[in-house]
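Question: Now follow the chain.
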Amino acid sequence: MPNRLPLICPIKDRLRPADVSGQIPLHTLQHKQALGLKLHRRNSTKEQLRTLRLIKQLPRAIIIGVRKGGTRALLEMLSLHPAVVKASQEVHFFDNDKNYACGVDWYLKKMPFSFPHQISIEKSPAYFITEEVPERIFKMNPSIKLLLIVREPTTRTVSDYTQVLEGKEHKNKTYNKFEELVIDNNTCEVNTKYKAVRTSIYTKYLEHWLKFFPTEQFHIVDGDRLITDPLPELKLVEQFLNLPSRISQYNLYFNATRGFFCLRFNFMFSKCLAGSKGRIHPDVNPSIKEKLQRFFHPFNQKFYQITGRTFNWP
């Protein structure tokens, strides 16, 4: 049983409701965090950082995937909350053997500076599909909160293909058409050897994670809804993380030019996701799309059953 695994870094204080009573105003938090990062880059002394009460903490919640499900959007939107700080880059600690061999101290150094009452969150989509990751995370903290954001599987598969296609085109390399990759030429059935297809079979990976963590430690985020109506999804995550309700409609505004929601931190600072987000998908043969939807359907039904959350997927 997983509870017999030795902990490499026991966490005594589990994810308690973040203490934001009498918290510092958000704009002051942002200023101090920016100042703390600047001091860190200048090899500042521990005394200088201690003056700001800034520390580094292991994450008490991780966005484990799924690739092209909306992990970056979710992380950026959660950072609107004054009790949440995010790692700016994908750390790839648990899925990269070389990084993992560096130890948990290396991982901690990759975390952002934060105030003691805040929680750190990182995201690395490859975690969800990498076999060694659940056990490694369990050894660090068996009661960690796990966020999994998913999209309708066929849409996610096309999005995955689109990102790879764009990368090939930038390098002036050719790439097969989507239909040629998702269908096995010999059997005329869905090609499960194609990684983009396998990644969309969410139950295949979730069942492995459930060998280490109970369903109560997972929260499933609707990536499609996060695009069209993000606030309800963010409120659910706030509840899951035991955070007080702080993110409001004021923090989210629709940018008609970009076609998705952008973030408003305060009256002085707002940001949109990188231009690479929201790529236009290639046209897919309708019969191929229907074939994929039929293929994913039984896996989707099992996913609903396991997670207790139902989506309006074909």
